[in-house]
Amino acid sequence: MTDLPLTTLTRVRRGAHHQRTDRAALYDVIDTALYATLAIVRDDRPVALPVGIGRDGDDLLVHGSTGSDFFRRIAEGAPVSLTITHLMGLKYARSLFDSSMRYRCAVVHAVASVVPPEEKEAALLTLSEHLMPGRSEDVRPMTAREIAATLVLRIPLAEASVKDNAGSLVEVDDDGEDRSVWAGMLPLRVVAGDPVTSPQTVAGTPVPESVRRAARRVAASGTA
Amino acid sequence: MTDLPLTTLTRVRRGAHHQRTDRAALYDVIDTALYATLAIVRDDRPVALPVGIGRDGDDLLVHGSTGSDFFRRIAEGAPVSLTITHLMGLKYARSLFDSSMRYRCAVVHAVASVVPPEEKEAALLTLSEHLMPGRSEDVRPMTAREIAATLVLRIPLAEASVKDNAGSLVEVDDDGEDRSVWAGMLPLRVVAGDPVTSPQTVAGTPVPESVRRAARRVAASGTA
């Protein structure tokens, strides 16, 4: 895989030593995320909303209603910024000034393209596999009307920055801070609870393997 | 508390029945969050980054380095969109089309103001109390140099939307879907792990109550 290029948009300006330029780091942030915060410019102001994501090779997929003004603007070429943050913990330094969050974060800059009608069903299945792996085999197929009502957008992963400060707890030896003050980290992770069955499900229907699989994935990554 | 006004920027366009206009809902999303995704327009493109947050009454506080181009632009009056998302679970419907995320989300639209020098220390303590309650009593006071190096921005919570679809699992009785397919929800929550002590801390230093308090707060809300 080629490295991510350093451009005006992607060069990390603060805490640059935490930048990662390998695609594996970017794909790991994406593949362990269920949603991203998608930002556009609307009437000269920023607006950013959470959206479910899926990765299809070197592209990200997002979907929305064909009736959504937000998605329509992106379909018409409005540049996007797509941010994924995995908060990994709180770093308690020996001063408030040096205290911080521990996180992995990816920011993608792109102009999206609209997935053409003949590729929409496959793209929606890719999204579904990312968000709810195996679920498409539990449920009925999508209908033509459902596919027609959905706008699917493809966002190239060509220009992106990844920042990861979740490494070891490094302190400079001669920083003059008091080592008798406790310093360290409070780790944070996402966990899945027990599945809740909808009351209208036929009594005795077992929780499908796909749902257990999604729970295991969250348990493995600690992120969502 | 007055309700949040419905404006061009705040009226929810999709899934409008999930919109909440009470300030209590907004403050709850904020007070159970450690960070937000802050978006601005830079050179006609959106850019959005995660930032730690604190609430001070009817304002949000964020802080960054005085050397940060991103924060400087906000200080100079660039409009912001600030998005907080609490992903509460995955909703498994009886079709892929109706499947979705369960979340609480707040989007704030504002122009920030710079906290003046004489109010900065108090504002930084408010931020610290939000992020690491009680921690300021464990550590040394901030220095004048640290305060000077920090830009603190105040974001009024005047124009904001809140969307909450994390309520009960409602299905329309006559939707024609197959009730023998399992439907339901996989809950997701954030948990804190055991605190990790920095190796340079004097051996035997106990984990402070402030860190345990932060862990309890995450446990209570399930969000971060």
UniProtKB/TrEMBL annotation, chains A, B:
<protein>
    <submittedName>
        <fullName>Pyridoxamine 5'-phosphate oxidase family protein</fullName>
    </submittedName>
</protein>
<dbReference type="InterPro" id="IPR012349">
    <property type="entry name" value="Split_barrel_FMN-bd"/>
</dbReference>
<dbReference type="InterPro" id="IPR024747">
    <property type="entry name" value="Pyridox_Oxase-rel"/>
</dbReference>
<dbReference type="Pfam" id="PF12900">
    <property type="entry name" value="Pyridox_ox_2"/>
</dbReference>
